[in-house]
Write a structure and sequence with these properties.
Layout: E1 4-5, E2 15-16, H1 22-37, E3 43-47, E4 57-58, E5 61-67, H2 77-81, E6 85-91, E7 96-101, E8 108-114, H3 118-132, H4 134-150, H5 155-180
Parallel strand pairs: 5-8
Antiparallel strand pairs: 1-6, 2-4, 3-5, 6-7, 7-8
Helix pairs in contact: 3-4, 3-5, 4-5
């Protein structure tokens, strides 16, 4: 199994201050996806930086759609595409697919993963950790702003450059999860 990619990363990087309207935008997209997917969507969650109050982000709403089996694309691909999204990346080894609007403006990204996958856990844990740790969220914002200046015209390099910081934060998030009893099922 090989990963499928769409090469276009959507133009220059534009990091903006937190927008109080992001939760409402997520709610709109969540409802649209829920209507399209019906019971295929086991959970639809707001993830990424726009899900963390006060955090600077690209003005793109990241959405996690959890399905029973990401490999069973027949159950979710057409309904997701009916909302104007197109497959941008798929990594079967990670049970993860990534959809975005077929053409700019790219207002939302939809991540599809299998229930119980590591992708589901990591995405939800990272958001919850940042929501509960202002200093970590502030540090992440500073890193993102520095990288946004350095890689203003290269989203792919910006994203790769954040990875080391994110992995460090995930180690801390896992410790927090152990200390607090955080689980995907109980969030």
């Amino acid at each position: 199994m090989t990963a499928e990619f769409a090469a276009d990363y959507g133009g220059p990087l534009d990091l903006v201050d937190y927008d109080q309207g992001w939760p409402a935008k997520f709610a709109y997209y969540r409802d649209e996806l829920a209507d399209a997917l019906g019971p295929v969507a086991l959970r639809i969650e707001h993830i990424g930086s726009t899900a963390v109050p006060g955090l600077a982000a690209k003005n793109v709403i990241d959405i996690l759609v959890v399905v029973a089996d990401e490999h069973d694309r027949e159950g979710y691909r057409a309904p997701i595409e009916s909302t104007g999204l197109a497959l941008a990346h798929r990594d079967p080894a990670a049970s993860w697919s990534f959809y975005r609007p077929a053409a700019p403006p790219r207002t939302r990204h939809v991540h599809v993963t299998s229930r119980g996958s590591s992708h589901e856990r990591v995405q939800l844990l990272f958001v919850d950790f940042l929501r509960n740790h202002d200093l970590a969220a502030d540090a992440y914002a500073q890193v993102k702003r520095r990288l946004a200046i350095r890689f203003a015209d290269d989203r792919e390099r910006y994203t790769r450059a954040k990875t080391e910081f994110i992995f460090d934060m995930l180690d801390r998030a896992e410790q927090w999860a152990d200390q607090t009893g955080w689980t995907v099922e109980q969030r």
